[in-house]
Write a structure and sequence with these properties.
Layout (H helix, E strand, L loop, with lengths): L2 E11 L5 E4 L6 E4 L7 H7 L7 E6 L13 E5 L13 E5 L5 E9 L3 E5 L9 E12 L2 H6 L22 E2 L8
């Protein structure tokens, strides 16, 4: 049986203790188990838990966002970023080879070139999630078919949608989308 699981979490870099993300005090993160909506190393532990349980879950890079790949850093002509006010460390979103939305980070730039990193910002990091299961219930038939918690009616605009453009676009803040 597939479940819809809601969690409240704080995410830290397990090696440095730096807090990377949290949804404490916000709406719980809900996902449908078995749909690949969250990283596998976290999901594997959460599906074993019940509502109100808490846990600290350590996730190695291979079960999280992957190892850091030096070949995923590229130098591109600055004219490909026309109209974008570049800053080091900013995230940009574009369309990948298969039409998927990809996130890149601006590592550095000169008058002529921009160094971008296609690695996920958390690639290569061992992650520590402190989680509370806020809810756990059976997924509805519509949720199983659409992959959307609450069904298609709940989808709305969201920040994970593909733009259809092959040009990078500037992002305002994080989303938690993977």
């Amino acid at each position: 049986m597939s479940k819809v699981i809601g969690i409240e979490y704080t995410l830290k870099d397990a090696n440095t203790g730096e807090q990377l993300d949290t949804n404490v005090g916000q709406a719980p993160l809900e996902f449908i188990a078995g749909k690949g909506q969250i990283i596998p190393g976290l999901e594997a532990k959460l599906v074993e838990m019940e509502a109100s349980e808490t846990a600290d879950v350590m996730v190695e890079p291979k079960d999280g966002y992957g190892e850091y790949n030096d070949e995923a850093v590229q130098l591109l002509p600055k004219e490909q970023f026309a109209g974008i006010e570049l800053t080091e460390g900013m995230s940009l979103y574009g369309t990948g080879e298969n039409g998927e939305t990809v996130q890149v980070v601006v590592k550095s730039f000169t008058e002529d070139e921009v160094t971008i990193d296609y690695n996920h910002p958390m690639a290569g990091k061992t992650l520590m999630f402190s989680v509370v299961i806020t809810s756990a219930r059976a997924a509805t038939e519509e949720e199983l078919q659409t992959g959307v918690v609450g069904g298609m009616a709940a989808m709305g605009g969201g920040c994970c949608g593909g733009g259809g453009s092959s040009e990078p676009t500037q992002s305002q803040g994080g989303c938690g989308c993977n």
